């Protein structure tokens, strides 16, 4: 797609330097892992592409750059579906568990907002419950965004 680029972690920071100079206050990250598999294990890896990128961005820019992350399984699964496939069908309930773990990995890395783009029923509730359960493990960088993100989805 025109205007859409993939960056290495180092290249990403250079690009965000340019974005910050333009007074753009926020970015939205979509991760493409090095390896994909049937269950999208890269989506929940605390050292995966998105958590590593978030940590690097927050280290350089702190709270001056709002970091939003996409939460979906499609970019991590070898079949490209938004969820786990069992017996030829997408398994909504099992996928919810992975989406929630993925969101938690992003937030614990420092993401200010998560933006689920999958098609699973109940995803916002599952993510909210996971974040609430582990709320003592992370500090929301932008408290207002922590609340808005689940109102506007």
How far apart the termini lie comes to: 24 Å
Which overall shape is indicated by the principal axes computed on the Cα atoms?
Answer: globular
Strand and helix order? HEHEEEHEHH
Helix content: 40-55%
The gyration radius over C-alpha positions equals 15 Å
Number of DSSP E strands: 5
Name the strands of the widest sheet in spatial order: 1-2-5
Average of per-residue pLDDT values: 88
Number of helices: 5
The structure class reads alpha/beta
Poorly predicted tracts of residues: 146-153
Summarize the main sheet: 3 strands, parallel
Q: What share of residues are in beta strands?
A: 5-15%
In short:
The chain is α/β, with parallel strands linked by helices and 153 residues long. The chain is built from five helices and five strands.
Task: Considering the chains and any ligands shown, give keywords for the structure.
single chain; 153 residues; alpha/beta; 3-stranded parallel β-sheet; two-stranded antiparallel sheet
Can you put this structure into words, describing what you see?
With 153 residues, this protein is an alpha/beta fold. It is built from five helices and five strands; from the N terminus they run H-E-H-E-E-E-H-E-H-H. The chain has helices at 9-21, 49-61, 92-109, 123-133, 143-151; strands at 26-29, 66-71, 85-86, 89-90, 113-116. The chain has a three-stranded parallel sheet. It has a two-stranded antiparallel ribbon with strand order 3-4. Helix 2 (49-61) links the parallel strand 1 (26-29) and strand 2. The longest helix is centred in the middle third of the chain and has 18 residues, at 92-109. Residues 146-153 have low confidence and may be disordered.
